[in-house]
Amino acid sequence: MTSTEPTLSAAGDRRRWFALAIVMTAAFMDLVDVTIVNIAIPSIQQDAGASFSQIQWITAGYALAFAAGLITGGRLGDIHGRKRLFLIGIGGFTVASALCGFAANPEMLVASRILQGGMAALMVPQVLSIVHATFPAHERGKVFGLFGAIVGLGAVSGPLLGALLTEWNLFGLEWRPIFLINLPVGIAGLILGSLFITESKAPKALKLDLVGVALVTLGLLMLIYPLTRGEELGWPLWGYVSMGGSLVVLGALVAYERRKTARDGSPLIELSLFRVKSFAAGIAVQTVFGVALGIFFLVWTMYMQMGLGWTPLRAGLTGVPFSIAVSTAAGLSVQKLVPRFGRKVLQAGALVMGAGVLLYIWESERYGLGIASWQMALPLVVMGVGMGLIVAPLTEAVLSEVPREHAGSASGLINTVQQMGNALGLGLVSVVFFGVIADDLRPDQVGPAFVDGFQHALWWVAAVMGVIFLLMSALPKRPAQQAEGAGAEFPVAAEKEPEFVS
Fold first, then answer.
1. What is the pLDDT of residue 12?
2. Which residues pair with 479 in a beta bridge?
């Protein structure tokens, strides 16, 4: 067994479960940080005196730096070691969080958020890479079930935590604790990660493809920047030109990566991964699923706070049933249901989540502005169960047939397309939500207009879930372990370990 492979001794077994807890905590910290800022924006605007444009950049700067750096961050882990890049990422993320928390002015806060997003791009791809390289095939179902639970908790914990920290105004610090809370978590992750995570990297020497880095960064920025700021700027012509030009740049990237692969076998993006049916299909589903989530979570937050007039804390607490449902269904799906029913579980998840969306539309229409938090619980639980049935097994399916040496590249691609989908969904909010709300509303018209806009946006989410259901037909049908039996005694030692077969 080579040095890049996980140890199967009892001590090694304990170490890798500690390592899993550490990387999952880092993933949770990133998920929370993406959403926690939105709740605190009014406090930031009032206390720091930030302009509307600066407020936009506090959220958009993080998203842009994160999305643009994910593929490069994943490949750097393959080359220089996933543990090393994870520790650099979590250390940098912690420093950037401190800079955000102690920002003296809005300009410093924006710059610190961009740095934070860049450090997250180094840290986050290593999470799935470390899991893929550390755990054998027969244990990854349990691991990805935990990962799905973390995703569910992170989805609504950010707004709830942001609301609590802002309302408590700890030590008179206003909004600053939403960033400073990362410091003890990050420091603990840095120390424990250095002790318990086992280093892994690609078995053959690779070099960083600098031309590929430049092309992928430019292409993603040209695509995501107009999507992120288009609504605020009134969708200018240059935004459409930029998005169209991004396709040309990304096409040039594909052509260059093909030549790079033939020349020295060290590209930034392993195009061979797209010949793996499970990976290609899963990437398509991840992208479209990101669109649905991008639309729903932003519109849902505005509907509750601006339309219904609820406090941030009430809005955050309303999402708790959703979080519990996602976490429970995620663990159940990969450990119990997928081994027995395979792809049908993911397709059922798309239908169940779509049914929850339709139920939410019906309740919103029936109860209008008088709807209560407890009346939202049923549709949120149904939606949460559907999402839980998707998120954990989908990640497992996408990575199942990826060779271990390309785990970083694959992980970076998974996270990148999800971010692209989210950005596209956020861009569509201006069309599917604000597009049906008039600009010159009287105060008494705001609530009903936001309720109508919410229902209109949810019809789009339901349609996207139908598209996802159709795309899932290209995923592998059955888990490989059920089709092939127990397999080898030490499946970890194999260079390529398919868990799903067509």
1. 55
2. 500
